Amino acid sequence: MADATPSPADRFRDAYENQPAWEIGRLQPALAAVADRIQGSILDAGCGTGDCALFFAERGHEVHGVDIVAEVIALARTKAADRGLQAQFLVLDATNLDQLPRSFDNVIDSGLFHVLSDLDRTRYIAAIQHVLRPGGRLWLLCWSDQEPPKPGPRRISRRELQEAFAAGWTIESLEEVRMEAAAHVPPGTFDPGGPRAYRLIACRT
Question: CATH homologous superfamily for 24-183+196-204?
Answer without folding.
Answer: Vaccinia Virus protein VP39 (3.40.50.150)
